[in-house]
């Protein structure tokens, strides 16, 4: 890891909790691991909040995004329900992952399974200004599907 990497302080809420890990040198997301000693079975259509046993201190000016793991989604239909989930810089509770089984078979989440990815990103806050009009663009108010298939 590079010396100029952003430092994220964390606390293990359980000795068994695994720290986030980058799977490769070019990985943007660090794998997150389930802390479920008895396992969880997600039936088709079911959702569950899966603990990680970690609490993070995201620096002000950043957020952490919880994203699905593509392999779980492609192979089993298991994904992060509120993707990307946002962890704000002022949240200090346990990091839990909201998973849903969109597949057609039950899926077992075992203790230590990689269940999601964590991507840390800078945040830009907007100042919302009310005005009499927005100004025109070529697209205008064309919404869903208006720019092509």
In short:
Helix content is 5%, strand content 38%.
In the CATH hierarchy, the third-tier topology is known as: Deoxyuridine 5'-Triphosphate Nucleotidohydrolase, Chain A
Q: Span between N and C termini?
A: 42 Å
Classify the beta-strand content into a percent band.
35-45%
SSE pattern, N- to C-terminal: EEEEEEHEEEEE
Question: Total number of β-strand segments?
Answer: 11
Helical run tally: 1
What structural category do the secondary elements indicate?
Answer: mainly beta
Net shape? globular
Task: Describe the protein's architecture and organization.
With 149 residues, this protein is mainly beta. The chain has a single domain (9-122), classed as Deoxyuridine 5'-Triphosphate Nucleotidohydrolase, Chain A, CATH 2.70.40.10. Helix content is 5%, strand content 38%. The chain contains one helix and eleven strands. It has one helix spanning 70-76; strands at residues 9-12, 21-22, 30-33, 40-42, 47-57, 62-67, 78-80, 85-87, 94-101, 107-109, 114-122. The strands form three sheets. It has a five-stranded antiparallel beta sheet with strand order 2-3-11-6-8, with no helix packed on it. It is globular. It starts with 8 loop residues before the first strand and ends in a 27-residue tail after the last strand. The relative contact order is 0.24. The model has no long low-confidence stretch (mean pLDDT 94).
SSE layout:
Layout (H helix, E strand, L loop, with lengths): L8 E4 L8 E2 L7 E4 L6 E3 L4 E11 L4 E6 L2 H7 L1 E3 L4 E3 L6 E8 L5 E3 L4 E9 L27
Antiparallel strand pairs: 1-5, 2-3, 3-11, 4-10, 5-9, 6-8, 6-11, 7-9
């Amino acid at each position: 890891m590079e010396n100029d990497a952003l430092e994220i302080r964390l606390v293990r809420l359980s000795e068994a909790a695994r720290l986030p890990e980058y799977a490769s040198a070019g990985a943007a997301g660090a794998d997150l691991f389930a802390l479920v000693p008895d396992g969880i079975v997600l039936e088709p259509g079911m959702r569950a909040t899966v603990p990680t046993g970690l609490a993070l201190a995201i620096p002000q000016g950043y957020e952490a995004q919880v994203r699905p793991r593509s392999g779980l989604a492609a192979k089993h239909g298991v994904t992060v329900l509120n993707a990307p989930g946002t962890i704000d810089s002022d949240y200090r509770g346990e990091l839990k992952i909201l998973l849903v089984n969109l597949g057609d078979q039950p899926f077992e989440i075992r203790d230590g399974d990689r269940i999601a990815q964590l991507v840390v990103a800078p945040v830009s806050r907007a100042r919302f200004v009310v005005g009499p009009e927005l100004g025109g663009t070529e697209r205008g108010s064309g919404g869903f599907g208006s720019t092509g298939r």
